[in-house]
Design a protein that fits this description.
Length: about 425
């Protein structure tokens, strides 16, 4: 069978799809993938063919919409900002997606720009499956994605705003595909059309959600976090440094921009000096070591979390879904210093599970970091983290289950 996967966003958005794509490729299927241009190298190095899809996601993370998200006070301002940064490039991405999905048995999309994929899938009359690394559909749980707690009506309003922001671009795309003009949002069409929506996280993070979504007759299955667990050239050298002393605390903020890396390293170094701890600090994909740091601190680039985290004492990070899952799978007490709009979501989950603490990155100081580290390094927090690790779905199981679901969805349409 032929599978087309088109996912935009940061590495945390793209990796779940790539992990499933690799498993489908291993099973002998043809897999085509479209990702942001800055992530093509990553996907190709993993063994998948990829084409450019939309703007550079690192540049997107640097834009004012992301940095000022929490300061947007009115729906009109949010709508305008949303339209500027989410509707742009729709036509070009639509063209790429139409080519990618030609001849495919199934189209997989991520959480961003699902309308693009839904329209192309409708054009080719093939199933569309979405991968969600957090609960983005309407539910009765309280979801702290925005400054105030999100209720069922607030989530609906958010997706309505998204539709209004992208409607003009979507209407143009549907016109090019000679599809009838949409009278409802792509979210509503996907949900009411019976599409499979794979939940790439463990259900115990959000008590009550699985029971609430049972009415969807298995169309929102929980498979656990999806990751490629790619090794890096630095892993052995980093493990050697770790083995030379007490287990360190890992600090890393993924694709989230840090406004002053030097100040951040200085703050972390001082806090760890005060506590007598070693620190392993992510310093960017290239592993730049030019920032001054003491001997008990090591700056590193990309590392394999599955290899490095179990050798650490605790992890401090931005609260991305993938990094959160990797830390908890390793049984690590966790401190989340969040910045982006979705990260408080996982920060709240970590606190609810009593495996760590969290605060907004911009409010962190040397004093608050010392206090937060003392909290997560407490024996009860470490014990609880080890307990949660036993409940996490194993990486291989998550990928296998997701691939089975995609195969089944494609087969039903193809042979049913």
């Amino acid at each position: 069978m032929k599978f087309a996967l088109a996912i935009h966003g940061s590495r945390g958005d793209v990796e779940p799809g790539a992990a499933v794509g690799l498993e489908l490729l291993r099973r002998g299927h043809e897999v085509r993938m479209a990702v942001p241009p800055n992530l093509i190298g990553l996907i190709e190095s993993a063994g998948l063919a990829a084409v450019a899809y939309g703007p550079d996601s690192e540049e997107f993370n640097e834009n004012d919409f992301v940095h000022n998200f929490w300061n947007i006070q009115t729906p009109i301002k949010l709508l305008r900002a949303h339209k500027k940064y989410f509707a742009q490039g729709w036509a070009e991405m639509g063209t790429t997606l139409k080519s990618l999905a030609d001849g495919a048995d199934l189209l997989v999309t991520g959480m961003i720009q699902q309308g693009l994929a839904a329209n192309v899938a409708e054009f080719y009359d093939i199933p569309v499956v979405s991968l969600h690394w957090m609960p983005v559909r309407v539910n009765g749980q309280l979801l702290p994605i925005l400054p105030s707690q999100l209720t069922r009506s607030a989530i609906s309003a958010f997706w309505w705003l998204h539709w209004r922001a992208t409607k003009k671009a979507e209407d143009a795309q549907r016109g090019e595909l000679r599809l009838p003009k949409a009278t409802a949002s792509s979210t509503r069409r996907i949900v009411e059309g019976g599409s499979l929506e794979v939940q790439a996280y463990d259900e115990f993070f959000f008590p009550g959600l699985a029971a609430e979504w049972a009415k969807w007759d298995g169309r929102r299955p929980f498979v656990g976090p999806l990751t490629m667990e790619l090794t890096t050239d630095a892993d052995d050298e980093v493990l050697s440094w770790i083995a030379a002393g007490p287990p360190p605390i890992y600090f890393g903020f993924g694709s989230t921009p840090v406004q002053s890396p030097a100040d951040t390293v200085a703050m972390i170094s001082a806090a760890c000096t005060k506590l007598g701890e070693r620190a392993l600090i992510y310093s960017g994909a290239n592993g730049s070591n030019h920032i001054p740091h003491p001997d008990h601190v090591k700056l590193v680039g990309l590392v394999n979390y599955a290899t490095i985290f179990p050798a650490c004492r605790a992890v401090v990070h931005h609260g991305g879904a993938g990094t959160t899952a990797a830390g908890l799978r390793a049984g690590m007490p966790t401190l989340i210093l969040w910045t982006m709009p979705d990260q408080p979501f996982w920060a709240a989950a970590v606190k609810r599970l009593k495996v760590g603490s969290a605060r907004r990155f911009s409010s962190a100081t040397q004093e608050s970091l010392i206090a937060d580290l003392r909290t997560i390094l407490a024996p009860q927090c470490a014990t609880r983290a080890r307990e949660i690790a036993t409940q996490m779905t194993k990486p291989a199981e998550s990928v296998t289950t997701a691939a089975d679901l995609l195969e089944n969805s494609a087969s039903i349409r193809r042979f049913g």
